[in-house]
Write a structure and sequence with these properties.
Blueprint lengths: L1 E2 L7 H15 L6 E3 L5 H13 L4 H21 L3 H28 L4 H8 L1 H16 L4 E4 L18 H17 L3 E5 L2 E3 L5 E3 L5 H11 L5 E5 L20 E3 H9 L20 E5 L8 E4 L11 E14 L8 H12 L4 E6 L5 E7 H14 L1 H5 L5 E14 L9 H11 L6 E4 L5 E7 L3 H11 L16
Parallel strand pairs: 1-2, 1-7, 2-4, 3-4, 7-9, 8-10
Antiparallel strand pairs: 5-6, 9-10, 11-13, 11-14, 12-13, 14-16, 15-16
Helix pairs in contact: 1-3, 1-6, 2-3, 2-4, 2-5, 3-4, 3-6, 4-6, 7-8, 10-11, 13-14
Bound molecules: aspartic acid (ASP) and magnesium ion (MG).
Aspartic acid binds next to loops.
Length: 474
């Protein structure tokens, strides 16, 4: 069971988590994975970045605030004086470590990826002992474990991946005996360590990935990601009032949604469980009576083949074109080596068969440096009028229609575009991969909501007809 930042956001949330784990652990062994208290990782990263500028104040202030926040939670959660003192001492050591790292960064005015990982990991290292303590308060034997002891990773700081066979060995050696003893391990999410013991992180939001890595390593029966929403929804409920929880979706659909901005899951989460086919649940720790969404290898089919919609708007459309690029074989190659060089993440690509124009989308944060690099790369071609324009539009959004069973279902695209036409939504670009489980289109940002509402209605995604009323025991 993994609990996200909001699920461990304060003392009362942590108490709720402890109760959920207590109930589950009476039925079978449970391994818990926790995130940092919500917001903490952001602050830590900010403190590290400010320190790099040589400014020591922000980090000092931050650690003060973090101490207060964690002390308050601890005081509210743990009645036993002895236990509280033990956890407090452990936390204090972590705060001191963080302060040292930030001071060192400020002195050197250099923040290495390794140091950034060490600082960003502190939140999980603080929350895990607290959650374990809260369990003990309820009479459940529990111990916190740092994932640096369990998850062996490659050395890619800020986005490490596990070395599974080594991780499996460590989990068997360390966690299995705890479970046999009736102890609930509470593992820090988000982090791991290289074979040499250097701490790494799995990327922002990586605690979900920690949960599936550990679940796979332990051959778990199921993995439950407890969060603050009811599950995977058919659309963002802030934009589409009729959005509802999807009872069951496939690994692939969930992954498509994760890549396209539905922030329920870290995009790599399901990678770890594909081989074993372990089901992954998304459930709401604030409403544990609800079923949530079950993510399974194949999912379950529903009528139209469309399962969910998602949209992202912090993206920028870049297009490059002109008559001179027709039939020039290296334009596409040069374009995307340029985006690769500046590490721009390309979310969508579309090129018409007339080859007059290539357009693609990057996150807005990457847009400036991508365009600068392209203008440099194609400077000669622009001068010789081979390339006529490199244009940028930041006021757009990508809407993605996701569903594995759209594959081989004719007419889905037609229905989407007719529905949009009726709402007067203009489509700027379209892309569908050959996997056919995602049709994405680009619209003006101001049309995004209308596009979602219209498509949602067209496929009846809000109707209760496909709703699952099964009661789930987890
Ligand atoms: N605390 C980390 C983050 O905020 C990891 C996680 O919450 O999943 O990115
Ligand atoms: Mg998360």
């Amino acid at each position: 069971m993994k609990f996200g930042g909001t699920s461990v956001g304060d003392a009362s949330c942590i108490a709720r988590v402890a109760q959920i784990v207590k109930d589950a652990s009476s039925e079978g062994p449970v391994v818990v994975v926790v995130s940092a208290m919500s917001g903490v990782t952001n602050w830590l990263i900010e403190a590290a970045t400010e320190s790099e500028r040589g400014d020591r104040e922000p980090a000092a202030a931050l650690f003060e605030a973090l101490r207060q926040q964690h002390d308050a939670a601890l005081a509210a959660l743990i009645q036993s004086k002895e236990r509280r003192a033990q956890i407090a001492a452990r936390m204090e050591a972590i705060f001191v470590e963080g302060e040292r790292l930030c001071k060192g960064t400020a002195l050197l005015r250099e923040l290495t990826p390794r140091t950034l990982d060490a600082v960003s990991s502190l939140g999980e290292r603080l929350s895990a002992p607290m959650v374990a303590g809260a369990m003990e308060e309820l009479g459940v034997r529990s111990e916190s474990v740092e994932a640096t002891e369990l998850i062996v990773t490659d050395p890619y700081h800020g986005g490490a991946d596990p070395v599974m066979d080594r991780t499996r060995q460590r989990c068997t050696a360390l966690l299995q005996p705890m479970l046999q003893d009736g102890v609930v391990p509470v593992v820090t999410g988000f982090i791991g360590a290289t074979e040499d013991g250097v701490l790494t992180t799995l990327g922002r939001g990586g605690s979900d990935y920690s949960a599936t890595i550990l679940g796979a390593a332990m051959d778990a029966e199921e993995i439950i990601i407890w969060t603050d929403v009811d599950g995977v929804l058919t659309a963002d409920p802030r934009l589409v009032a009729e959005a509802r929880t999807i009872p069951e979706i496939s690994y692939r659909e969930a992954t498509e949604l994760a890549y396209f901005g539905a922030k329920v899951l870290h995009p790599k989460t399901l990678r770890a469980v594909v081989k074993q086919g372990i089901p992954v649940w998304i459930r709401n720790s604030f409403s544990p009576e609800k079923n949530g969404t079950k993510i399974t290898p194949k999912g379950r089919t529903n009528g139209g083949g469309v399962k969910a919609l998602t949209a992202i708007k912090d993206v920028t459309l870049i297009s490059l074109g002109g008559p001179g690029i027709v039939g020039v074989p290296d334009v596409v190659g040069r374009t995307f080596s340029t985006t690769a060089e500046v590490h721009a993440n390309v979310l969508l690509i579309s090129q018409s068969s007339s080859q007059n124009d290539i357009c693609f989308i990057v996150s807005s944060a990457d847009a400036r440096r991508t365009v600068d690099a392209l203008r440099k790369e194609f400077a000669q071609d622009v001068r010789h009028e081979k390339v006529e324009h490199i244009t940028v539009d930041a006021h757009i959004a990508i809407v993605a229609v996701v569903g594995e069973n759209m594959r081989g279902t004719p007419g889905v695209a037609g229905r989407v575009f007719i529905a949009l036409g009726q709402e007067n939504v203009n489509i700027i670009a379209i892309a569908q991969g050959s996997s056919e489980s995602n049709i994405s289109f680009v619209v003006a940002e101001q049309d995004m909501k209308a596009a979602l509402v219209a498509t949602h209605r067209e496929f009846g995604l809000g109707s209760a007809a496909t709703h699952d009323r099964r009661v789930t025991v987890s």
